[in-house]
Write a structure and sequence with these properties.
4-stranded antiparallel sheet; mainly beta; single chain
Length: 213
């Protein structure tokens, strides 16, 4: 799930009946953070397709919704936009070849300032079976630049399921690299958003334990 900054919307992916495809994006809303969630609604054909939509990430301003479309081996990163929180989502757009690859690109996470988009990819040119990558833009009105591999963070194994702290200075992800069980939680930090990411550390058991135990 991905929850909006005001705590009034939660986006998730599900294969429940009533969707358009295999897995769809849904949203549940509530009037205030003290209220219960209302029944979830499907985001409809402008966002969903007959295939798989997954890994939603709502931007801090609530006006961009990033997600992946397709299987993990072929998925592309997508974005849907709206002009105001009270308006419906516009038709989803592919982020294009500068960001996406012929392989799987999924699990997007955008920083609160909207200037960095982190994701997982199985593309060629990485260090392992799946790596963390980032694309950047000068302002939220600009297009995303070419994707860059997080060389100091990745390993020769699976590095995936990226998440970020609100200030953009802590990066959490799962990895099955040497010394950690499959799904082990790792953390990297940086001093500022202009500084590089430091070598990650394994958070250990029980926090870094396998997701299957």
């Amino acid at each position: 799930p991905s929850i909006s900054n005001d705590g009034l919307e939660v986006y998730f992916w599900c294969n429940r009946p009533g969707g358009l495809g295999d897995w769809d994006l849904w949203v549940a809303t509530r009037v205030s953070t003290e209220d219960t969630w209302l029944p979830a609604t499907n985001l409809g054909e402008k966002v969903n397709s007959g295939g798989t939509e997954g890994f939603p990430c709502i931007s801090a301003d609530g006006l961009e919704l990033y997600f992946s479309r397709g299987s993990e081996s072929t998925a592309d990163l997508m974005v849907a936009r709206r002009n105001a929180k009270t308006q419906p989502w516009g038709r989803a757009e592919n982020l294009g070849t500068g960001v996406n690859s012929p392989a799987g690109d999924y699990s997007p996470r955008v920083t609160d300032d909207g200037l960095e988009l982190y994701f997982v990819s199985t593309r060629a040119g990485g260090l392992g079976l799946s790596d963390l990558w980032v694309t950047r833009r000068p302002t939220p009105e600009d297009n995303w630049g070419p994707a860059v591999n997080l060389l100091t963070v990745n390993s020769g194994n699976h590095d995936q399921w990226v998440n970020l702290s609100g200030d953009g200075l802590t990066l959490l992800f799962q990895s099955d690299r040497a010394g950690a069980q499959y799904g082990g939680l790792h953390m990297s930090r940086r001093k500022s958003t202009d500084d590089p990411w430091m070598a990650p550390v394994y958070l250990g058991l029980p926090m870094g334990g396998s997701i299957y135990t």
